[in-house]
Every structure is written in C-alpha cells, then in structure tokens.
Amino acid sequence: MQIQGKTALITGGASGLGNATARVLVEAGANVVLLDLPSADGDERAAELGDVALSTPADVTDPQQVTDAIALATERFGSLDIAVNCAGIAPAQKTVGRAGPHDLDVFARTVQVNLVGTFNVVRLAAAQMASQEPDGDERGVIVNTASIAAFDGQMGQAAYAASKAGIVGLTLPVARDLARELIRVVTIAPGTFDTPMLAGLPQEARDALAADIPHPHRLGEPGEYGLLVRQIVENPYLNGEVIRLDGALRMKAR
Ligand SMILES: NC(=O)c1ccc[n+]([C@@H]2O[C@H](COP(=O)([O-])OP(=O)(O)OC[C@H]3O[C@@H](n4cnc5c(N)ncnc54)[C@H](O)[C@@H]3O)[C@@H](O)[C@H]2O)c1
Q: Please, what is the Cα angle at 167 between 239 and 179, to 5 degrees?
C-alpha cells in the first residue's frame, strides 16, 4: 500500500515504538492519529507532528472509546487505512515469589490490555477499513506488536509472555478472516528497544541488556521498529506473518 495521503491509527502513539512509528509514517506522507491514555503526552506529541497528526485520548480495552477514536480519525482525514497496535504494559512477577503466588489481577490486566486491547482495535479498525473503497487491491494494513517474550519469555514474564503469545496466535486467523476484505495483518515481535520504558534504567543495566544481542550489538532504536512498519505497509505480499526484529537475540531464562 502506498503511504502517501493514507491515515494511520497508532495505539500507544504518544511514546516509544508507537511515537517513532508516527514519525516514520508522517515522513512517508501519512496522516496519523495518536491513540493513547489520557495520562500520556498525546497532545504534545501530535503538535510536534503538525496538522497531519491528531491525538485522541482513549483506552484500547474500551470498545466505545476506540469506536469514537476511529470516528474522529475518519471525520478529520476521510479514511482509516493503517492501524498499528503499540499500546502495552509489561509488569513482571514470578509465578510463585517471595510474597506468594502471582497476583491474578495483574495477570488478567496484562492479558486485558495487551491481548484483548489489541484485538479490540483490530476488529474495530478492520470494520472501518472494510466499509471503504479499496486502493487497488488493498483496503488496509494492520500491524500488531508482540514481543520475543512470546517465544523465549524469561522468569517473571508469565503474564507478559502469555499476552504476547496470544497476539502471535491471532495473527494468521485474523489475516485469513480479513482476506476477503483485502486487509493484511502482520505482527512484529521486537527484541529489546531503547524506549522510555528502558530510558530510566542506569547505564549499567542498559549495557547488560545489550550484552546478549549478537549483531547489531546494541539496543534497537525505535525508528528501526517504525521502519519495519513502513516496509510492512508498503509490501503487498506480506501477510499473516510474525516477524522478529531483534538483532538475533534469543533471551536467556533470566
Ligand atoms: N521496548 C521494548 O524493548 C519492547 C520489546 C518488545 C515488545 N515491546 C512492545 O512494544 C509496545 C510499545 O512499547 P514501548 O517500549 O514503546 O513502551 P512505552 O511504555 O514507551 O509505550 C507504551 C504506550 O502504551 C500506552 N498504553 C498503555 N496502556 C494503554 C491502554 N490501555 N490504552 C491506550 N494506551 C495504553 C502507554 O500510555 C504508552 O504511551 C508494547 O506493546 C510493548 O510490550 C516493547
């Protein structure tokens, strides 16, 4: 799909990988709608991007709020062609820790935000895309964000890894479901990226995270994630696949 003039909804768009994606897509000529929590800096991030961006505070798990955000996007820019799911949370807790068994609410909340929230956006964005005229033989592209934790989850990552494995699992069936509507669905499984999540760590901890990454021997840059989103949108034959973006990192148990 050609990006010029298209509209992209980006969840988690006020921070990290989502915000980097917004920048890459704007550079490629897209309008972007940054969907993030009211507590995030959505308005400031959208203002930095100019008239081609708008911010809409919403929770990805809330059907009405996401419906309203999509309506706002199409009202302002005329269509919704690309949806990128970057909203997510990453709590860490062991199955049985010093304080006892894993908090079940933390497990459920992680699955609710990362997996149910992603599917909520997928289903509502796809319904909007399906109602639009195709551009050639494409109506839309949806990109989800899993994690390499879906495959090599570490100690303390039961909830996070399970939520991300769910995203990996839905990728092919959703791509199959939406084939008739001419909508492609691709999931990126990032390794370790230098986002605000990691920025607060001391240099020693950041070096330790980078130490196991074979090549390039460093943390991923958010723009490199945004670049893959761009490449996915532009390549019409890429569909129903999960792509690791990790510099060949395979995470150890801890
Ligand atoms: N940074 C990494 O190394 C890394 C690695 C693998 C996967 N990921 C995944 O990439 C995605 C983006 O991560 P990031 O590093 O940019 O993190 P981040 O914390 O910088 O950004 C996540 C954004 O999601 C928003 N968000 C959280 N819950 C939300 C909700 N319920 N509704 C709407 N917005 C919500 C937050 O406000 C935040 O702006 C996440 O899904 C994360 O799990 C990140």
A: 30
